[in-house]
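User: Reviewer 2 asked us to show a designed sequence for the structure in our supplementary figure. I'm pasting the structure tokens here. Could you produce the per-position amino acids so we can include them in the response letter?
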């Protein structure tokens, strides 16, 4: 099945099974805003717990924070967001559709990469085990020609972006004959800057009201509280502050479901270090964060770093962790060495010292900062893209059947176990309810007695429930139940009293954290 179709099915599945709903759906929705349903909110909370515990529980020198969404408007002047948090916007005059000029060019660049990958795959099939990809890349004329075109465009694009040369961005689109995907024409407007911040007013009267912004990142709440936390927590450098919270961006183009939203959530950690040590810490956090992703078991080959060649003016190193989504490798997390830019800007704009007194060095300085920044929603999309599978099953009579299964890591699964009486009589429902009553203090359990047992298993597979417990007549005789495993579909008979330990061993977050 084409990856595009897989993605469409995943979006439909999320709605059908209570993971994600379009916001304000009965009013035809609100573009790029989504609500999380009964299972979505559980998965989201579990993702946040995995991140929070890996930062705050595992590191004695990292503490949490929950700063307000509304902040003093000068913060956004100091951070540079008022003047420079812009995307280059271009309209197609025929379709009246709006695009990000840089994204149109990036998508064009990706086409060269696709062509190269297709050549490689063809050659791999032809030559089998003897295929030498490195040699092929260095010698195949078609690969070399596409690589050269890609490098040339990349260099021109980076130069235009670095210089914020909007006319050149437009010229690249014209020269490369990039067309509007809707109208198919090249009838483009000029490129202009578009600020992504949402503004509102605070105050009771129009005259007395102040223009304030919905925060476009959570990081600034950490910067402005840096000394509060350092002093009250008696933190010594190096130390970190972690925060999870909502962020808002008026994205020009919001596509691909929850990948790019106008209201989303971030998990950010700012790590304050001695000036001069930042690039060592940058490498450290790159490694730690990649390990965090890969510990979920979705396959190391599906992740890669994308080191930035174009650096923001405040950064001296930056990389993205990308995941292979159904629509290609895309950023899930950013790791940035932000120098002392933000703290120095706040020092200048607030007139308050943002310095740390280093008792070991006997001097004060403005620390440098390494930031790890990941979107909760984007991580959610990464997890469900990896977990969603349509499987063909062979039945005993030789015919085939299909099942949709969410192979979520047990710790992340919204429901840990479903408890099912085989039939709705002979005291079996009461036994099942007693098991739920006992286990609900430990795990998110669901009682299910509707439909045939096979349909109930399918329903739980589609939700991603890792364990189904079935109560039958044998349970009355010997107090045993069957536990059915989602991934292997195997069943095992166990003592009821063993259930708590068996399941705890499998769904406990500590086993995941110990891998880090
Ligand atoms: N404080 C740094 C910062 O905000 P960013 O690269 O703009 O950096 C960090 O964003 C992460 O936030 C991204 O890697 C992505 O996971 C998430 N993110 C950014 N914009 C988003 C959007 N419009 N919708 C969903 N997630 C977004």
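Assistant: Here is a per-position design you can include in the supplement:
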């Amino acid at each position: 099945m084409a990856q595009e179709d897989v993605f469409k099915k995943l979006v439909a599945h999320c709605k059908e099974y209570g993971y994600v709903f379009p916001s304000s759906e009965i009013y035809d929705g609100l573009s790029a805003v989504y609500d999380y349903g009964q299972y979505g909110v559980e998965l989201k909370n579990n993702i946040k717990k995995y991140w929070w515990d890996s930062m705050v529980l595992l590191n004695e020198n990292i503490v949490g924070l929950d700063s307000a969404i509304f902040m003093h408007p000068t913060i956004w002047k100091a951070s540079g967001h008022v003047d420079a948090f812009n995307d280059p916007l271009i309209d197609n005059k025929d379709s009246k559709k709006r695009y990000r000029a840089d994204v149109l060019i990036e998508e064009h660049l990706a086409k060269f990469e696709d062509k190269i990958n297709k050549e490689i795959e063809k050659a791999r099939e032809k030559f089998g085990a003897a295929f030498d990809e490195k040699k092929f890349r260095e010698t195949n004329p078609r690969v070399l020609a596409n690589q050269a075109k890609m490098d040339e465009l990349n260099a021109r694009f980076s130069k235009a972006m670095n210089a914020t040369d909007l006319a050149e961005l437009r010229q690249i689109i014209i020269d490369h004959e990039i067309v509007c995907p809707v109208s198919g024409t090249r009838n483009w407007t000029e490129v202009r800057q578009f600020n992504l911040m949402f503004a509102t007013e605070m105050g009771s009267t129009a005259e007395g009201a102040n223009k304030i912004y919905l925060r476009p990142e959570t990081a600034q709440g950490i910067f402005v509280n840096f000394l509060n936390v350092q002093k009250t927590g008696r933190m010594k450098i190096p130390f970190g502050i972690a925060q999870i919270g909502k962020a808002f961006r008026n994205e020009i183009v919001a596509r691909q479901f929850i990948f790019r939203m106008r209201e989303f959530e971030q998990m950010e950690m700012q790590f304050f270090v001695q000036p001069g040590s930042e690039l060592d810490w940058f490498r450290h956090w790159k490694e730690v964060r990649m390990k965090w992703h890969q510990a979920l078991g979705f396959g190391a080959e599906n992740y890669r770093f994308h080191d930035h060649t174009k650096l923001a003016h405040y950064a001296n190193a930056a990389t993205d962790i990308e995941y292979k989504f159904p629509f290609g490798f895309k950023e899930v997390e950013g790791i940035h060495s932000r120098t002392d830019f933000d703290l120095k800007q706040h020092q200048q704009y607030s007139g308050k010292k943002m310095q740390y007194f280093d008792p070991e060095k006997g001097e004060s300085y403005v620390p440098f900062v390494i930031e790890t920044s990941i979107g909760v929603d984007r991580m959610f999309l990464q997890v469900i893209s990896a977990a969603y599978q349509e499987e063909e099953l062979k039945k005993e009579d030789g015919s085939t059947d299909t099942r949709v299964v969410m192979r979520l890591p047990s710790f992340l699964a919204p429901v840990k176990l479903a408890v099912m009486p085989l039939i709705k009589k002979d005291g079996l429902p009461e036994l099942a309810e007693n098991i739920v009553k006992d286990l609900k203090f430990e795990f998110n359990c669901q009682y299910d007695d509707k439909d045939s047992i096979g349909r109930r298993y399918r329903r739980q597979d589609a939700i991603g429930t890792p364990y189904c417990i079935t109560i039958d007549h044998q349970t009355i005789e010997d107090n045993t139940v069957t536990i059915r495993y989602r991934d292997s579909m195997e069943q095992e008979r166990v003592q009821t009293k063993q259930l708590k330990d068996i399941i705890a061993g499998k769904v406990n977050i500590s086993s995941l954290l110990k891998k880090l």
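For the response letter, you might also mention the following. The pocket of glycyl-adenosine-5'-phosphate is lined by residues 217, 219, 249, 251, 260-261, 264, 266, 268, 331-334, 371, 373-375, 377-378 (CB under 6 Å). Residues 290 and 321 are 7 Å apart (CA to CA).
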